[in-house]
Amino acid sequence: MLALISVIVSTYNWPEALAAVLRGLRDQDDGNFEIIVADDGSDHRTRDTIRLVCPAARHVWHPDEGFRLAEIRNRAILASKGEYVIFLDGDCIPRASFVAAHRRLAEPGWFVMGNRAMLREKMTQRVFAENMAPEDWPLPVWWWMRVTRNVNRLAPLLTLPLGAQRKRTRQTWNHAMGCNFAVWRSDLDRVDGLDTSFVGWGWEDNDLFLRLLRAGVKRKHGRYATGVIHLFHHPTYAAENYARFKAVLASERMLAVRGISKLKDAEARVGRAVDG
Fold this sequence. Notes:
By secondary structure, this protein is an alpha/beta fold. The chain is built from ten helices and ten strands. It is 38% helix and 16% strand. Strand 1, helix 1 (15-26) and strand 2 form a beta-alpha-beta unit. The protein is globular and about 50 Å long.
């Protein structure tokens, strides 16, 4: 029986979106999980939002020195207590069944890749302006959202059992998204977590998935069970990260170049310096 789950929510200076995500997590059907907000250097508004919406959530923060998603996620992993970890972006609203669905799909030797339905820009603005709770909308409302092109697709919000079909997916890092996925903490330790060499947006998730596959952890899809509602934002890209990922592809690397272990070593050195 899977016990405590750690939900790691990554965020950076978008407290309105984080409030919606924390509200969705606060109202889950499954209550046996912890929330860790992995904050990549936000100002006080994020701290205030956590205290207001979900004071039980833990806030892991480091200074704003550019886009360091991989590092703040590693810091959150180190702070986590669960044996199973769900990663969720701070602009992806979970429905009430989200954690329970991930719990049902958890299986040793597998990581679970969820998906998303993305609200269009104007609809996202309405959600904030009118204080809407899209995680509570019934299927007929979502059908109308799709007809009116206010959401890009409907399939992630449907629920189907699928069973063994979930394992009949290509064992590849391709088309894998880091905004909604789950993995055993022991498997994260096997590959030394995320690689903090990836600075700037993009490819750090693909790198993690590739290394998990090389470690023998298989990919299982969470479609029709774990779908989240993605709030619209304009993407940014770090071209150098693609070159870094291509180098990993050309190698046989399984461990992160700069992973959890190096972060632990650095923290230990700081602790010894303070003690001294």
